């Protein structure tokens, strides 16, 4: 989310270096990937942008929980489907894109004749610090902490052979689904982000507020911002505990990091892998999506199987999204206007991820908690909030990139990394 764009840009101007002699096991030729031959892959920035705005679509239901809280309206089918559609799919896509970014950095180091992982742990440490600060100061549904830990593990696992990596992907996915199957450990029932996808929980909350005749709107923002920070610090251990989303992403993320790296390495964005992309689209949308609907939307969800949706079938749908975007760009040869808008966000992925959370929390505390929003349609109000924040991110990204090559957080991140690693 930070350095892989820089490495992609280097590929445009640096000749392919001779094979590395650092001992990196790489039985699949890296020349299958466009970047290995000096070409930039426009679909990558588009996919990063889709993943970032997709996570906003998933989390926006938390920020707008107060909208429509005084109405007697119950969430209808549109509300339920709107909450289900982004749930888990873009978390999965974002995780896969991190794995692709890790492979881009590995290949860049290999062409430069540098050891791998080399100084990468410094990058992971900075990402972890970013995640902790985001968790404590902004929102508790942060994924950067888990990604930082997973990235270090995956960076070393990429030193193994292709065959071993396939076995590792299978082993981590098996362990992941085994944990999800254990009763009482499904993160969907204990984490705010997962709960955001459960429209029924919001209906119950709105119902309690509506019953308080004459009472002022309950403070959805909770305690003051500083009190929340203090509480987050005191309960920081929960965010790393067994049964938290952090723990879930450690297992799922390791498998998806390795899978994303492997897909990039075999050339998923090249024309020679079109048949594989079509299979991924068919499985992702023809099989995984209907199953995800059953697990996440029907009465089966009452038993707690939403976890198998959010952290199971959803990432298979995410693979379908990746293949669909790659196929579209490969067939058309350009990304078009919608793709350009997404690519602005994708080039500033870290900044936009953090900014969307900051904007969401500010809106939650200072705007959506006001009495005027009590009688707004909760579904339409949430749509409007998402479109507004997404538009701000797109316009800000476009304007910023007119003058700078990196986003604001990326600039600070890169400067800090170079100081720590003494580059």
Entry keywords:
single chain, mainly alpha, 0% strand, 423 residues
Average pLDDT rating: 80
**Whole-angstrom Rg:** 21 Å
Structural domain count:
1
**What's the story with the biggest beta sheet?**
none
Uncertain spans, ≥5 residues at pLDDT below 50?
Answer: 9-31, 184-221
Counted by DSSP, the helix tally is: 17
Strand content: under 5%
What can you tell me about this protein's structure?
With 423 residues, this protein is mostly helical. The protein has one domain (4-421). The protein has 17 helices and no strands. It has helices at residues 4-13, 42-63, 77-84, 89-111, 120-137, 144-157, 162-181, 192-196, 199-211, 225-234, 245-265, 274-297, 306-332, 336-347, 349-366, 378-401, 408-421. The protein is globular. Mean pLDDT is 80; it is low at 9-31 and 184-221.
Secondary structure elements and pairings:
Blueprint: H1 4-13, H2 42-63, H3 77-84, H4 89-111, H5 120-137, H6 144-157, H7 162-181, H8 192-196, H9 199-211, H10 225-234, H11 245-265, H12 274-297, H13 306-332, H14 336-347, H15 349-366, H16 378-401, H17 408-421
In brief:
The chain is 67% helix and 0% strand.
